[in-house]
Amino acid sequence: MAGGAFVDAEASKRAQFYEYEITGYCILACIVAALGGALFGYDLGVSGGVTSMDDFLKEFFPKVYTRKQEHLNETDYCKYDNQILTLFTSSLYFAGLISTFAASYVTRSKGRRASILTGSVSFFAGALFNAFAKNIAMLIIGRILLGVGIGFGNQAVPLYLSETAPPKYRGRFNQFFQLTTCLGILIANIVNYLTEKIHPWGWRLSLGLATVPAAIMFVGGIFLPETPNSLVEQGRNEEGRINLEKIRGTKNVDAEFADLIEASEAARAVKHPFRNLLARKNRPQLVIGALGIPAFQQLTGMNSILFYAPVIFQSLGFGSDASLYSSLITSSILAAATLVSMFLVDRLGRRFFFLEAGTQMITSMVIVTIILALKFGHGEVLAKPYAVTLVIMICAFVAAYGWSWGPLGWLVPSELFPLETRSAGQSVVVCVNLFFTAAVAQFFLVSLCHLKYGIFLLFAGLIVIMSLFIFFLLPETKQVPIEEISLLFKSHPFWKKYVTDSDEKSSGE
């Protein structure tokens, strides 16, 4: 099928003739590529822990350190309200959202592998800058380099996984990215728990160890095979077929290869892929994949918990060790929930996990809001029964996110775009995702200070909206070949009026 164009009935039936085996070659390639998630996850986990470490605060943010040690009369919600401190976190994501557009060009013209290698080098350099930082300027420069690394990695890795995976198991393979992200968060929290006890330079070790996944990803990336889709898109058809045969474990790839050839012809006809995203026939992919899902993924409130889990638990009266220990629990649950999604998403479907998790997350946030509204406030330690309930509700929220918006926020957009706009579309996905990540990182603490417990009620309301968005607009994509997913919109109750038969011969701009 030619990307976003609807082709004749014969072409649309090719999927039933796809042949493949689950080969070790395919699994190894996906595992190496998915290490890009480890970079993202390690930074998510390590930044929140480091910003709660006394040694780090004393060296770079002494005012925040002083405020942290005092029992303020105003409210415990405001202990960490400092825009420069949050800029330390959010600067990475602002850099990432800008660099992803450069990554789009590299990914489309040079291949997915080239972007993965570029991202690992930049991330490695950023980790070194942060580890040896002597002032805030060095910290910010390091964060920007890390952001460039994440911009390239997040742009290329989900595409690589979706294009490499067999259609029947695309959800499972694509979620390697989220699994390594969760493992990166878990490892970062373990590292923070250990380095917090190393005075006064433990925080430097936490930040510097980000070089390890970057180095592994670079070395693995050197041997990483390019995806058949990318090779065909570049006109390297013979190499593309050879790679497809290796990945699928069979010589009988005529049907799938014919779809790739047809999709690549449509892709080469598109001279302005970003402009083509605005075409009427691509309206579903633009609204759902490029704008809706990546924005909503951050507006669940999950990254607020990941960034500032140690801060939140300290504000609730937990000691420094207890707060980091609580973060270990939440990141472990996140990883376990991702495994649940990996093994069931291709059976139960994307919509099931989105809608079930929405109910669970809304319930959790409402209960958190009630406890904080009634029992938490002005310098008093939260009573143990309420603190335990709060932690349980946060863990329930994390679990729901871990098998829904976390992995599916990357899986579903990477499935939706036709080949001619896939790289451009994924860049918009990453840009929107990182924009909202940065905004949440930058404004969560000040919002927590001013809205207090109301911030969690706000997140609950947003999850209601995004659940309705999924229910009415997202078709089920499980086990549908990636080059045939656009057909789903032709028969969708809402989208069929935008994607009509007149689009069949459309070749883009």
UniProtKB/TrEMBL annotation:
Gene3D superfamilies: MFS general substrate transporter like domains. Residues 29-478 form the Major facilitator superfamily (MFS) profile domain. Keywords: Membrane, Sugar transport, Symport, Transmembrane, Transmembrane helix, Transport. Pfam families: Sugar_tr. Its main location: membrane. The chain crosses the membrane at residues 22-42, 84-107, 139-161, 173-195, 201-224, 324-345, 352-374, 386-406, 427-447, 453-474. InterPro entries: MFS_dom, MFS_STP/MST-like_plant, MFS_sugar_transport-like, MFS_trans_sf, STP/PLT_plant, Sugar/inositol_transpt, Sugar_transporter_CS. It is a multi-pass membrane protein. It is found in: Membrane. GO terms for cellular component: membrane. GO terms for molecular function: monosaccharide transmembrane transporter activity; symporter activity. It comes from the Eukaryota. Signal peptide: none annotated. Belongs to the major facilitator superfamily. Sugar transporter (TC 2.A.1.1) family. This is Major facilitator superfamily (MFS) profile domain-containing protein.
